[in-house]
Amino acid sequence: MSAIDLLMKNESMLPEVYKKMTDDELTAKISRVKKALGSDLYLPGHHYQKDDIIRFADAAGDSLKLAQLSAANKEARYVVFCGVHFMAETADILTEDHQEVILPDMRAGCSMADMADYRQTERAWEALTHQFGDTIIPITYVNSTAEIKAFVGRHGGACVTSSNARQIVTWALEQKKRILFLPDQHLGRNTAYELGIPLDEMLVWDPIAEELEESGAPEKCRVLLWKGHCSVHENFRMPHVEHLREKEPDRRILVHPECTWEVVQASDDAGSTSYIIDQIRNAPDGSRWAIGTEMNLVNRLIDTNPHLDIISLNPYMCPCLTMNRIDLPHLAWALDQVEAGKPVNTIRVPEKTASDAKKALERMLELV
């Protein structure tokens, strides 16, 4: 079955009755089923989810935190993960065998994670190790598929988050002369630069052309960056920064390190989702902010901090479209099916893949 066939199949799986229900009816149904399932259910919600989903979450957080919380909640038989596919995979890898991880809508994917598939990575590794020898250790952002995490685990590497990237990259460069950073070139570049590695010691691997984009001397290279990106964060651009600097120079610009190097350098501060939330939480009354991250989170920060003046760095930004696949109809349907003993959209990572991916996750967790 092709990917398009699979998407169409999953789209048609949601029964019409849920599409016709009002938000009030869906909210009432979700509340009732959630109460009925009690401790058998754990419902984590990513920070980028819409408010009408977050209101039902047992915990809100980033992908790794939610996967760890899911694993810690061993009483729950079902984990209905309100996030995207790679997050549900990570939760399945870390939870117990008796627990089922469910993604309410299988179309909730991640364009960044999809920019590095297993075959591409194997071919890249063969070419890069042929050129550079046994001098490379692979590192992958947690925003990657289980297969990529497994590849990294098998080759002695580790996962990173946007919070701990500096620690893990520092460790990796103590193991080998070079790192291969998958799949987000911007987080890799921003982290390496922050650690004092100049741009001319970084090269980009293009997985489509299957070649390095030459911009420096290969023999000097210490960081090999996979040509991937977050479609949301790449939409914060230098014209947005320049406009604010001219019109509102007192507005502090705070961005996520998945933004481009130029935008991060031109901003006042950059950090993970948790870092951004903490900065706003501790901000002085009346301070003015422009935030470069996903719009659902920005809107939530605006709503929960009326004493601050917060805007999006890109005024025309829209929420993460794939994250927004998780909606009230799909959540109500998923919970109904759990209550009926017929769970749908269960995420199962193959045992060998899960075992190797867990090595990469555990190496990271041992280091932070």
Task: Explain how this protein is built.
- The protein has 16 helices and 16 strands.
- The protein has 368 residues and is an alpha/beta fold.
- The protein has three domains: 3-109 and 322-349, Rossmann fold, CATH 3.40.50; 113-230, NadA-like (Rossmann fold); 233-312, 3-Layer(aba) Sandwich (Rossmann fold).
- Strands 7-6-8-11-9-10 form a six-stranded mixed β-sheet, with helices on both faces.
- A hairpin with a 4-residue loop joins strand 9 and strand 10.
- Helix 5 packs parallel to helix 6 (85-94) and helix 8 (146-154) packs across helix 16 (351-367).
- 46% of the residues are buried.
- The model is unreliable at 1-12 (pLDDT under 50).
pLDDT under 50 segments (min length 5)?
A: 1-12
CATH superfamily of the largest domain: NadA-like
What CATH first level of the largest domain would be assigned? Alpha Beta
Strand order of the largest sheet: 7-6-8-11-9-10
Rg result:
21 Å
Tally of individual domains: 3
Helicity level: 40-55%
How many helical stretches? 16
| CATH third-level topology of the largest domain | Rossmann fold
The CATH architecture assignment of the largest domain turns out to be 3-Layer(aba) Sandwich
**Structural class computed from helices and strand pairing:** alpha/beta
Principal-axis shape equals globular
Mean pLDDT: 94
What's the β-strand tally?
A: 16
Termini, distance in Å? 41 Å
Task: Bin the strand percentage.
Answer: 15-25%
Instruction: Give a quick account of the main beta sheet: strands, pairing sense, barrel closure.
Output: 6 strands, mixed
